[in-house]
Amino acid sequence: MSPANGNYEEVEQRIRELARTALEEGRVDYFIGWTAGYNESEVIPGFVRSADRVDALVWNPLAAYNLTAFLKRKMPDPPQAKIGLAVKGCDSRTLVSLLQEELVDRERLYVVGVPCEGIVNRRAVSKVFANEVVKIEVEDDTISVTNQDGETKQLAREEYLLDHCRSCKYPNPRYFDDLAGEAVTEPEDQAPMWREIEEFEALPEAEKDRLMAEAFEKCIRCYACINACPVCYCWDNCVCRARQPKLVSQKVNAQENLMFQMVHMFHVAGRCPSCGNCDRACPVEIPLYLLHRKMNKELKEMLDFEPGIDLEQKPVFQTFDVNDPFGQH
Amino acid sequence: MAQATETATGTTASWDGEGRVKVVGILCNWCSYAGADGAGTARLRQPFDFRIVRVPCTGRIDPLHILKAFEKGADGVLVSGCHPGDCHYAEGNYYARRKLELLERMLPQLGFEPERFKYTWVSASEAQRWQQVVTEFIKGVEKLGPREGRAL
Asked: Do B98 and A210 touch (CB under 8 A)?
């Protein structure tokens, strides 16, 4: 990933202009973008409903949230609403996945694409101080972190990006109506982003078993991962909360929790481009990427398939090829 | 414990399992179930620590059914259906193949030894092949023994 070239303000202005125009012209009823959090260390999703409020929108390397997640909830409600939203490269891939399966209505969407140069891993950054971090600033290759006592630390930007940003192949949105700012150069021959997965794969089975049990022991089944997941959309009809079929019970233990997570993973297989929204939403920091990125690694090997790249492609589990290179005998 | 006895067809009885593992087989109605039935009719000796679930087609199988079996205490799961191209419903096993392959590749990530899951194709006329597949599979599971202290 290339170092930040610092045109965040330009892009931010562009997002505001595009949102303002869309709201004024009535092209959208509301616009979903990123807004400032309660201090300068955080950027949160924000809904802008009138043109005079667009200045609340921000764009900086803390805008981690995948806003596509709101579509699954908001698209039918209110039924006629037209929605504008901003998407980064990975967010747009989840949107493409939803469009491929006709789960959102293209006609009622206005998408502002935002070329992205990598998002800061806020969780990792906020751990450099024992107390609360109140400000995170990114300039060129350094991240300055300030805590509540006014102490500041400098960190190398490269090391504190989200893991999947470090080897991002698609920093530019794959689907948009208007692009805010110029497209960033896409890495030509990006090494695969499977380093963490390969390290985990290399462990002996018993060790993997132990680590999984340890991770899922902590799960409190708050369902934040599926609520924040843009491509997991059954919502109130989720099989995890159903009595028939009873795949997962109400018990909270490592096995049931892992089973619940596997339901999530298998249900988003082929749609999930590993945007990381579930990892960031998890309050107990379960390494969900070990599951969804592994799944994408295997899909790439099995079918040379990457989710959310091509709007015309058929969802990979809704089709088949008689010549699939596995399970021949 | 299983005793090796001569079978009606003269096939050597090779099974000497200990019956300490639980193995679930999910078989399609039209091929593998009939194949297993044929193996029984022909009195081919088969492992006894094996529980069969009959499904209309391998396309009916959700990978989660298999995980559920493991979660409920199965030590191994064997899925078998019609050979690709011979599906009673023309294409069910082509869809199944993709899902099962993904599951097979995901299981080691959860700490499963690869020998605990297998998907294969056995037709109604392949009683001999069925005997061989199921015996080999269960031997592999027996070697690993029951799953204990597991994540799933």
From this structure: no
Contact A322 B85 (CB under 8 A): yes
Q: Is residue B67 part of a domain?
A: yes
Query: Does A259 lie at the interface with B, CB-CB under 8 angstroms?
Result: yes
Phi and psi, residue A29, nearest 5°: -85, -35
Here the tokens at position A218 are 């902590």
Average pLDDT over residues A85-93: 95
Domain range annotation of chain A = 120-160, 191-317
- Cα separation of A258 and A164, whole Å? 23
The residues, any chain, with a CB within 8 Å of residue A200's CB and separated by 6 or more, are: A208, A211, A290, A294, B109
Contact A209/B at CB under 8 A: yes
Interface of B with A in 84-113 (CB under 8 A): 84-85, 91, 94-95, 97-103, 105-106, 108-113
- Cβ A327–B119 below 8 Å, yes or no? yes
CATH number at residue B85: 3.40.50.960
Q: How many domains does one find in chain B? A: 1
Nearby residues of A10 by Cβ (< 8 Å), 6 or more positions away:
A181
3-class DSSP assignment, residue A145: strand
Give A260's pLDDT tier (boundaries 50, 70, 90): very high
- Taking the whole predicted model, whether its pTM rises above 0.95 is answered as no
Give the residue numbers spanning the domain of B119.
20-144
What percent of chain A is modeled with pLDDT above 90?
72
Element (H, E) at A29: none
Residue B112, in any domain of the structure = yes
B138 found inside a domain: yes
Q: What is the ipTM of this complex?
A: 0.91
B14 occurs within a structural domain: no
